[in-house]
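Sanity check. The docking grid for zinc ion depends on where the pocket ends up, so I'm generating a full predicted complex first rather than guessing from homology. Inputs follow.
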Amino acid sequence: MGKLQQVRDGLHRVSPTMRYLAPTTRAERSVARDAGLEWRRWYKTARWQRLRWSVLVRDLFTCQMCSKVELDTSLLVADHTVRHRGDADLFWDETNLQCLCKHCHDSHKQRAERATT
Ligand SMILES: [Zn+2]
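Predicted complex below; grid placement will be based on this.
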């Protein structure tokens, strides 16, 4: 009982290192299964932050689908035009990236997923 109390008291010191992003669609689950979620970590790297930023600057913070200029970069997405499905070459290829606003990205993604299911 004393040990259990010790563990419970120590739990607050354990911080979650990374939030698990659960795959929500069938296609995402399939990708996650195949890639073992390895590629999700790529989004957390400084290399990705640099690449994302260079794409937003290159595209002048302009959505490549609706031409909206968005200055709040939290509302912009560096979108892979060809789905990388965990393929490192496609993931890191700057020519495979385009700047999209969140709205277009989300609707674009849903359309693409409907097309593949
Ligand atoms: Zn847009």
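Relevant for the grid: The mean pLDDT is 83.
Also worth noting: Residues 76 and 101 are 5 Å apart (CA to CA).
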